[in-house]
Amino acid sequence: MKKLLWSLTLFGVILIFPVNGVMEYDKMEKFTDFNGTNVYQTENNVKSKAKVTMVGLTLIKNAALRSAVCLDGSPGGYHFHPGSGSGAKNWLVHLEGGGWCSDTESCEYSKRTSHGSSKHMEKKIPFTGILSDKASENPDFYNWNRVKVRYCDGGSFMGDNENKDAKLQFRGKRIWTSVMSDLLSNGMEHAKQGLLSGCSAGGLAAIFQCEDFKSSLMSSTRVKCLSDAGFFVDATDVSGDRSLRQLYTDVIEFQSITNNLPNDCLNRLNPTSCFFPQNLINQVKTPLFILNAAYDSWQIQESLTSKSADPTGSWADCTFNLAKCNESQIMFFQEFRIHMVNLLGGFKEQRKNGVFLNSCFSHCQTESHDTWYSKNSPSVKNKRIAVAVGDWFFERGGAKIIDCAYPCDKTCRNLI
Q: Which is catalytic among the residues 79, 81, 363, 369?
């Protein structure tokens, strides 16, 4: 097979990197980094007029004894910024995303990045978007205790196993429980309000861990969960196959995740189906908010029109530049949107839940100031994402918003 390059799209800019010069696409696409949090890595790069708050990395204590370790065996970690004033007893825990690894080769690659080893994690990161400590940028959660849990297990915080031969640790579940234990002992056990959120693979994890988060807090605590860009759909790609289904099958089998999947789903469906949010969300009892782009850029580029699905490259121009899409290609995207809207139908009807589905070609919209609550942030019916989430959490109404189809929305920050 052809030797190929790794492409990563961030905020409409395409970056091309060789990966050891030998990676074949059908394996490389399985662990493409699509985590929105790594866009801003220095204070000077944050696109906000206000001075950004940089928050240090805390490594989990006694991580080896607790098996709360990354793929390479290094300690898991998180960033914590304390709340103040009226938010001092409120907690927001945000789960980082960063793709999945599904075989030895892909997990070995992840070990050399922050998504597989805390040795490669930034010592400080900017807290922006939903993590910002500024009322002008994050009106409802700015003074809460805010935590960002780093993602370094390659399995959406669901694995609890190891591969001794390959020297790989699949301990996402242990990282989750250890961080929760540390936060509870640091004051979260007395929380008045709690929100578990996550982006991308972390958004999927927020769905998986929602009920556990709820049960960890007092019965009197108002607890809700938010999944940003975590609604990965079991959809047919341009070849007629279901590449994401195969990826999830490989992740579950390689990391031995089956036993950690929700029992109420496993009683109905096979393990792979139970990794798809569409088969999970209606059974989540805790109030849940689904925030997603109807034309999720990662799903389009890395699943629906990936090079394994489009070996001749007939979709290549379109998936990186909408202006180059023909009528039938746009129709394919519209059908994907319709499928996503239909999957959210029953979920949306439950009073406790919230939805914000905008007709953008983007991925992860809570973590950036530009998409969360800037003057020109994406909006539907004049409501920005931060406002919609806040309205839902505090039950101010107007929390079920589905945009009209492309190209009606002129507020999008498209990545394609």
A: 363
Of 80, 81, 101, nearest to 179 by C-alpha is 80
Q: CA of 101: how far to CAs of 116, 149, 165, 168, 169, in Å?
A: 9, 18, 16, 11, 12
Q: Could you tell me the domains of the chain? A: 6-402 (3.40.50)
Contact between 48 and 135 under an 8 Å Cβ cutoff? The reply is: no
Residues paired with residue 384 on neighbouring β-strands, in sequence order: 379
The answer to whether 133 and 88 are in contact (CB under 8 A) is no
Residue of 118, 200, 216, 297 with catalytic role: 200
Handedness of CA 333, 338, 339, 340 (dihedral sign): positive
Which amino acid is residue 398, in one-letter code? G
- Let me know if 296 is a catalytic residue: yes
| 42 token code pair | 């220095």
Q: What is the pTM of this model?
A: 0.90
Contact, 115 vs 33, CB < 8 A?
yes
With residues binned 3-state (H G I as helix, E B as strand, rest as coil), the percentages for the chain, rounded to 5, are: 35, 20, 45
- Torsion of Cα atoms, 315 then 316 then 321 then 325, to 10°: -20
Q: What is the pLDDT of residues 254-271, one digit of tens each?
A: 999 999 999 999 999 999
Residues 225 and 195 sit within 8 Å (Cβ to Cβ): yes
User: Out of 153, 296, 391, 409, which one is annotated catalytic?
Assistant: 296
**Residues in the chain where the model's pLDDT stays below 50:** 1-48
